[in-house]
Amino acid sequence: MEKFSTVNDFNQSQEEYLNLIYEIMQNRKRGKKPVAFIRTYGCQQNVADGERIKGMLECAGFVFEDKPDNADFILVNTCAVREHAEDRVFGNVGALKNLKLKYPNTLIALCGCMMEQKHIADRMYKSFPYVGLVFGTHALHQFPELLYRSLSGGKRVYLRDNDDNLIHEGIPVKRDGTFKGWLPIMYGCNNFCTYCIVPYVRGRERSREKYVILSEANEMICSGYKDITLLGQNVNSYGKNLKNSPSFAELIKEIDSIEGDYWLRFMTSHPKDCTHELIDVIADSKHISKHLHLPFQSGSDRILKAMNRHYNREKYLDIVNYAKSRIPDVSLTSDVIVGFPGETYEDFKQTLSLIREVEYTSLFTFIYSPRVGTPAASMDNPISDEEKGEWFRELLSVQEEIAAKRCASMVGTVQKVLVESEKGKDNILNARTSGNIIVEAPGSKDLIGSFRDVKVTKAGNWILKGEFI
User: Fold this and answer.
1) Band of residue 164 on the pLDDT scale cut at 50, 70, 90
2) Structural domain total, the chain
3) What is the CA radius of gyration of the chain?
4) CA spacing 20 to 30 A to 288: which of 158, 242, 248, 339?
């Protein structure tokens, strides 16, 4: 095996642990090489974390499979944002019990945001004794040491709540894709929206140095990545903790100056920090996608204040209208919460009116899910689940009408798309526009991973159909 060499903060001791893991696994593996299975839930930041875990495992000699049956090491990377995601984790971890009984040497581990919550970690410890390793989001850089301790000591290893407020660079990355990739630019969040668990499980904002991001972006572009997404809980506040306080607008302008054939995206963008400068950079750029994901959550100023969002409807619409004026074909998407504690139907109607005024390309919609430890979890919530469900369906109906109208307006146009995947059989391919709209078109799978022009011939409620030209 080629030894892993240290880079930046990924220190020599972690390098040595990777080599020790390699030696241990020669006697524990079931096949020719040790096999790992990684299942990731949640946001793109979790996916990016999973790619770093895979990078470290690859350096220790592991190969990867997409089913757990043959795995010597199974890792579930968890999400705490929604209750549904947590329930799926508990169910899937429970299903691994029989696999552990059949292959006792298989090590089962959990990591991610759920594991930074004490009540969840305690439940895991008591209810799932066959889980041998648990670590939180702040221990990613210590993963080789933790895995070695678990493999060599024969005891369960649990580590959470150990935030050192630092960013650890140089962790190896094994990316899941070959032409679409994630590039984290910061970690954590300082906003403390009353419904959100993220600041408690991801810690405070910490930005990566600009030169490190530029170097990684250049490396991805030179490696042929066509679609690069910058990640952060609030990318608009990038740089505030750095020495010279570079702004997010400055960062993406410098990345945009890198030569190549690619699109640059980013998420998530908080409205309170979204500036006209940022929109100007997008409008004048060569590579930045003309797509702005700007979560508004509610159209009611009263609810926005209760959510601790630090903006009101007027400010939000000012940003949206400026974006429309500078980027005429801008595609706007957003997040919406239905049924926040104390919300009335009058508040909800203000959300509907905002949706109609902005005319979003698409929305990510959620019925409020209480998170233990957040202020909103203790607020009065008198609206019944049945009423929330009715509101939710009404919202979906409004957005479906808007999306269908927008899609219909694109029939007959020619769009540049990135061809992403096959859609089942019949030689139908899925492609995506700069504005993040899916286009289906017949073609050879050899086109996957390339930019092409497509003429839009038909529109559905959410997707387009077309022909490559």
Assistant:
1) confident
2) 3
3) 23
4) 242
Domain finish residue from 240, 274, 289: 289
> Is the torsion defined by CA of 350, 351, 352, 353 positive or negative?
positive
Q: What residue numbers bound the domain in which 127 lies? A: 12-159
Instruction: Give the tens place of pLDDT for each residue, 182-209.
Output: 999 999 999 999 999 999 999 999 999 9
Strands 414-422 and 438-442: unpaired
**Per-residue pLDDT, 64:** 97
CATH classification at residue 184: 3.30.750.210
**Tokens 């040491």, residue located:** 145
Helices (H), 237-283: 248-256, 276-283
In a domain, residue 325? The reply is: no
Check if the beta carbon of residue 175 is closer than 8 Å to that of residue 183.
Answer: no
Determine the Cα–Cα distance for residues 117 and 113; give it in Å rounded to an integer: 7
Residues 6+ apart with CB under 8 A from 13: 145
Write down the pLDDT at residue 424.
77
Residue 95 belongs to some domain of the structure: yes
Under DSSP, the state recorded for 137 is: G
Q: Where are the beta strands (DSSP E) in 254-313?
A: 263-267, 291-293
Cα–Cα distance between 109 and 128 in angstroms, integer? 11
At 304 the pLDDT is: 98
Greatest Cα-to-Cα distance within the chain, rounded to the nearest angstrom: 65
More reliable by pLDDT, 304 or 241: 304
Concatenated DSSP letters for 3-38?
PPPPBTTB-HHHHHHHHHHHHHHHHH-SSSS-EEEE
Question: What does the pLDDT look like over 403-440, one tens digit per residue?
Answer: 999 999 999 999 999 999 998 778 899 999 999 999 99
CA quadruple 326, 327, 328, 332: dihedral sign: negative
Mean pLDDT of 163-188: 93
Instruction: Write down how long the chain is.
Output: 469
- Render pLDDT for 240-254 as a digit per residue (tens, 0 to 9): 989 889 999 999 999
CATH of the domain at 455: 2.40.50.140
In angstroms, the Cα distances linking 153 to 24, 143, 148, 222 are 11, 15, 8, 43
Same-domain check for residues 227 and 134: no
